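Renewal narrative, Specific Aim 1. Our central claim is that a sequence can be written position by position from structural information alone. The example that follows is taken directly from our test logs and has not been curated for this report. It begins with the structure tokens describing the chain, in the order in which they were read.
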């Protein structure tokens, strides 16, 4: 059921999209400022940021819908917006909500959109439309007029438009807006299918749990600037200096670690050792030599919500966060 646009193997280090020194100014207001963004081929990149952080403006410049004030944009190897005709047929996009004719049905709207697809012949349009409608769960409502659709159904139709033909890249701006939990899970499945087929997916979202569940990479924007980007797992581990040790004797473990000048505190299953100045093997060795039973030891992992809060707090409170500014694959 997934698109086949990404059948070729992903090249190590290859980028599906990139920006350099990207800047956009609207009537004296800086919306995006010096954004250097990299979207690896085959990745599912979640673009996060508070309202007004520049996410949608960046996406619009990636697609050539807005011309940058300064900087460079490449999409699938093409300079944007100058070479948009070479890139856009291989890109499916849903940006700032779909726009369709209110008095036409969902099916009729999608057929009009399909007629403009360079990769679709006239004879292929009916099947492509029906397949896309079924894929987003709108098959039963395809005959209804668009003006009678709920917000979630409108989002689904916009997503169907992005998936009319196999793509190399799919860009989704808040794709779960207006969807119920079941619809959100369906979007997650679609993104997973695309990823499995090697399609690069860029998702702008404010739902941190969804990003953590579906994305391989993350870019965090704040005040129009990228404050962190890289592989999700690496970002969540960067800056963590805690080792969680599961042991039935937390009090003894705490005593042994402090005797070895390793800072620690009690945790629900044992102790949390500070590994800023000591390594994980040193912590475990100290406990074992001290006669403490160690059942498990694992590096503490920050949740995406905690990381996001740290990166987007006020500058006055952000001292000491330079070590998580960027993580490269």
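The sequence written for that structure reads:
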């Amino acid at each position: 059921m997934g698109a086949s646009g990404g059948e070729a193997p992903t090249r190590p280090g290859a980028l599906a999209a990139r920006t350099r020194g990207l800047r956009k100014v609207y009537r004296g207001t800086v919306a995006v400022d010096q954004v250097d963004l990299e979207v690896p081929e085959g990745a599912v990149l979640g673009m996060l940021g508070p309202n007004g952080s520049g996410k949608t403006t960046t996406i619009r410049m990636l697609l050539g819908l807005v011309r940058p004030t300064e900087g460079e944009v490449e999409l699938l190897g093409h300079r944007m917006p100058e070479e948009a005709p070479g890139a856009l047929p291989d890109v499916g996009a849903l940006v700032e909500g779909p726009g369709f004719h209110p008095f036409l049905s969902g099916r009729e709207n999608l057929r009009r959109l399909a007629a403009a697809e360079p990769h679709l012949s006239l004879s292929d349009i009916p099947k492509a439309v029906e397949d896309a409608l079924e894929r987003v769960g709108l098959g039963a409502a395809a005959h209804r007029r668009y003006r009678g659709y709920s917000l979630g159904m409108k989002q689904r139709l916009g997503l169907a438009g992005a998936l009319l033909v196999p793509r190399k890249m799919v860009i989704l701006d808040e794709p779960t807006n207006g969807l119920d939990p079941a619809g959100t899970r369906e979007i997650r499945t679609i993104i997973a299918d695309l990823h499995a087929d090697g399609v690069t997916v860029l998702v702008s979202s404010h739902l941190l749990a969804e990003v953590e569940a579906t994305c391989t990479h993350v870019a965090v924007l704040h005040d129009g600037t990228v404050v962190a980007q890289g592989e999700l797992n690496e970002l969540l581990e960067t800056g963590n200096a805690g080792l969680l040790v599961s042991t039935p004797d937390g009090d003894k473990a705490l005593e042994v670690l402090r005797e070895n000048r390793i800072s620690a505190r009690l945790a629900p299953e044992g102790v949390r050792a500070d590994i800023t100045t000591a390594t994980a093997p040193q912590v475990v060795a100290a406990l074992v030599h001290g006669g403490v039973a160690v059942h498990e030891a694992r590096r503490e992992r920050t949740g995406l919500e905690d990381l996001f809060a740290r990166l987007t707090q006020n500058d006055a409170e952000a001292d000491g966060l330079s070590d998580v500014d960027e993580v490269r694959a």
